[in-house]
Write a structure and sequence with these properties.
Length: about 400
């Protein structure tokens, strides 16, 4: 094999040495195996020991086919998010808020290379013409990246880790997300087939809680998930997963969440789940919950449980559903809102449980039923209504059992 020009000169620093190896591998089309790395080093006039060659090979393989310096962070089972805002500014979230790590990149160009390579792995384009990307990697990790000059100074890279196994409700109680005894209410909620939404801000744990609750669904039920990005991982034997798809470079092939909800309704779901209600799919979801699809659920971004009706109203009216019709459907379709927050220490917890009621004008509003306290939920005005909903299902089950 001929030697690419300009690679025989000795290098003095590790960074320059690896740059030369990268160039040799790129020009020769060779895989970064230890043997190829050793050959590239020899072509540069360097003779290194086996340990040094293997170390260089591991570093290059990590950069070329892995996630580079971020690999140890992504392998940490406690990490939920990895955020890169500069070559020496790498942050992680391990469930207690953002922490600055000691991980760094050689320079801003290395961050850009990693972002572009990850985008390519996800089958997406990331360059000056398309300076941002939102995609899912093959292992389920959610990727978002923005290149300069849109991102000032350095490429910004955000990775949301999706764990292969969902947390159980018992684990969420142990972690403090659910207060002691609160799991009994949540189990009864799922068992009663009440429709509900999990609300909260970004990173508050909505997907984690919803996955855990779906794991409580009876094994004989069929769950159909419709998601913008496949993040829900319920521990359940019968799950159908549908995921949206962006348009290709010709503008064709777009599959929206609205499309998925329509298709899901034709797939005989016992539980219809929308990963995040964020657009016109709210119309089809509310219609489904009003026509015999009990136990449907999903997540929605909101600052408080009391803001959920207004949030759904905004989405519904943008989709062409007038205000009165939206609130009529909402009153009949949705029973409970579980609202999550992150406390000042960064811990995620269920702050409130609300039920819905209609005010004298016919508009839907939420009423607090349970409020967070470290030792147990505190009952609020709406607890009586929530108790009625749970008892009604229990009584119906008992009656059906006697009739059978």
């Amino acid at each position: 094999m001929s030697t690419p020009p300009g690679l025989r000169r000795p290098r003095s620093s590790t960074g320059t040495l690896l740059d030369g190896v990268r160039q040799w591998l790129a020009e020769s089309g060779a895989e970064p195996t230890p043997a190829r790395v050793a050959q590239a080093l020899r072509e540069q006039g360097r003779v290194l020991g086996d340990a040094e060659v293997l170390g260089a090979a591991r570093q290059l393989r990590s950069e070329l086919i892995g996630s580079g310096p971020l690999e140890p962070l992504l392998a940490d089972p406690r990490v939920t998010d990895v955020l890169v805002s500069g070559s020496d500014r790498v942050w992680v979230d391990r469930g207690g808020g953002l922490e600055l790590t000691g991980v760094s990149f050689p320079d801003a160009a290395a961050v850009r290379r990693l972002a572009q390579r990850l985008a390519a792995v996800a089958g997406r384009r990331l360059d000056d013409a398309r300076p941002w990307v939102d995609a899912r990697l093959p292992d389920g990790t959610r990727l978002h990246a923005v290149l300069p000059p849109v991102a000032v100074g350095c490429t910004c890279l955000s990775l949301r880790v999706v764990r292969p196994r969902a947390f159980t409700l018992d684990e969420l109680v142990a972690a403090g997300t659910v207060p002691p005894g609160g799991d009994r209410v949540l189990r009864a909620l799922v068992r009663a087939r009440l429709s509900f939404l999990v609300s909260g801000g970004t990173g508050s744990g909505k997907t984690t809680l919803l996955s855990a609750l779906l794991g409580l669904v009876g094994p004989g039920e069929r769950i159909v998930l419709a998601e913008d990005s496949a993040e829900l991982r319920p521990d359940h034997p019968h799950v159908i997963r549908l995921e949206t798809r962006p348009a290709n470079q010709e503008g064709a092939g777009l599959v929206t969440l609205e499309d998925l909800v329509r298709q899901a309704l034709r797939m005989r779901p016992d539980r219809l789940v929308v990963g995040e209600v964020r657009g016109p799919e709210v119309v089809h979801l509310l219609a489904a919950l009003n026509t015999g699809h009990e136990g449907g659920c999903g997540t929605v971004h909101a600052n408080a449980a009391a803001d959920v009706p207004a949030r759904l109203e905004a989405l519904g009216t943008a989709a062409g559903l007038d205000r009165a019709a939206l609130h009529s459907q909402l009153a009949a379709a949705l029973s409970v809102v579980l609202h999550l927050v992150r406390d000042p220490a960064g811990r995620r917890r269920i702050d409130e449980v609300h039920v819905l009621e209609r005010d004298p004008s016919g508009l839907v509003r939420t009423v607090p039923a349970l409020r967070w306290r470290a030792d147990a939920f505190v009952q609020e005005r709406g607890w009586e209504r929530l108790g009625e909903l749970l008892r009604s299902h229990h009584e119906n089950e008992e009656r059906d059992g006697r009739d059978g």
